[in-house]
Design goal:
NYN domain-containing protein; 12 helices; seven-stranded mixed sheet; alpha/beta; NYN; LabA; Rossmann fold; single chain; 2 domains
């Protein structure tokens, strides 16, 4: 059997990480992607660095009821691309995408379908699948999106350690195939009066920070679970009164408030810049819930800002409360 390589793309990681590089937030609605050129670049990288011909590109994404939307259908029709869909749950989160990637990695390795795999993902949950594929003689390279410092964005240390190598997608490729939506002309609303009125912009930082439960040192048992680090502190959740890890060397309340402000400002500015026609109506219709796309970006960006995977309930609460405070204040980037 002829040796071949294949590319496995976690679309959620690829696009969210690229959006963060381009716009400063993972909000997918803040970017537009030239998927055809992006796929061509991934193929070129895999074939050049492996020295092997391509079997195919496996593109993993999620869709409501596993029915592809027009954008996904277009991607699935690209040459050499196999579209693999998980589903979107009732909570708006994708389900089954990581499982599909892991199952395909192992199945293709066992069948000796490929000799080299390029995995575009950073998810820690794929570590065991990578190790299983390697056990069948397949070389697995993680292909990461570069951040603004041209370092790998959001790649789990476990995944990086398990892989045979870590490559970066060319920054020139990301910058030329992923563009901010704010760069395109904005549509002119046909009925401006239909948008719910928003108060004039105000200085968000001037608003007093929301209260947060006091931080206290981690217990010896919990410290042992965190590698014996003494600078790890916990925040007590006001809703459950349970300890939840926030971040090593927990931020002072003022610094936490500042980071929350930075995340909210970037996401909200990207939200308005993407296409402000109907944005106010969408927010009004969803309230008190934050639109799923925006909420996902807020949580992911906050996790990145703190360098952790799971946010404490108290941080989530403050983050979402700040979002609505900023919306009510008419900024940043919102209509005056």
């Amino acid at each position: 059997m002829r040796s071949q390589c294949a590319v496995y793309v976690d679309a959620g990681y690829l696009l969210a990480a690229s959006a963060t590089r381009i716009t400063g937030t993972s909000l997918l609605g803040s970017i537009e992607a030239d998927h055809e050129r992006l796929v061509e670049a991934l193929i070129a990288h895999a074939t050049k660095h492996s020295g092997l011909p391509l079997l195919r590109v496996h593109w993993y994404d999620a869709a409501r009821h596993k029915v592809p939307d027009p954008r996904q259908e277009k991607i699935g029709l690209l040459p050499h691309v196999k579209l693999r869909l998980g589903r979107i749950g009732f909570d708006g989160e994708q389900k089954g995408v990581d499982l599909r990637i892991g199952l395909d990695l192992v199945a293709h390795a066992r069948k000796a379908a490929v000799d080299a795999i390029y995995l575009v993902s950073g998810d820690d949950d794929l570590t065991e699948a990578v190790e299983e594929a390697q056990a069948h003689g397949v070389r697995v390279t993680v292909l990461a999106v570069p951040n603004r410092d041209d370092k790998p964005h959001g790649v789990s240390r476990h995944l990086q350690s398990a892989a045979d190598g870590l490559d970066l997608i060319s920054s020139a490729v990301i910058d030329s195939t992923i563009l901010p939506r704010s760069a395109r002309p904005k549509p002119v609303p046909q009925a401006p009066a239909s948008r719910p009125p928003v108060p004039s912009p105000a200085v968000f930082a001037a608003r007093p920070p929301a209260a947060v439960p006091a931080a206290r040192p981690v217990s010896p048992a919990a410290r042992a679970q965190n590698g014996g680090r003494s600078d790890v502190r916990l925040v007590c959740s006001s809703s459950t009164d349970a300890d939840t890890t926030v971040a090593p060397g927990l931020w002072a309340d003022e610094e936490m408030a500042e980071r929350i402000d930075q995340v909210v400002n970037k996401v909200l500015r990207a939200w308005w810049d993407g296409d402000d026609a109907g944005r106010g109506s969408e927010l009004a219709a969803s309230r008190p819930s934050i639109p799923k796309e925006v909420d996902r970006a807020l949580l992911l960006d906050m996790s990145d800002a703190l360098g952790i995977d799971d946010l404490a309930d108290s941080v989530r609460f403050r983050l979402r409360a700040r979002f609505w405070e900023q919306v009510d204040a008419g900024g940043p980037g919102g209509p005056g």
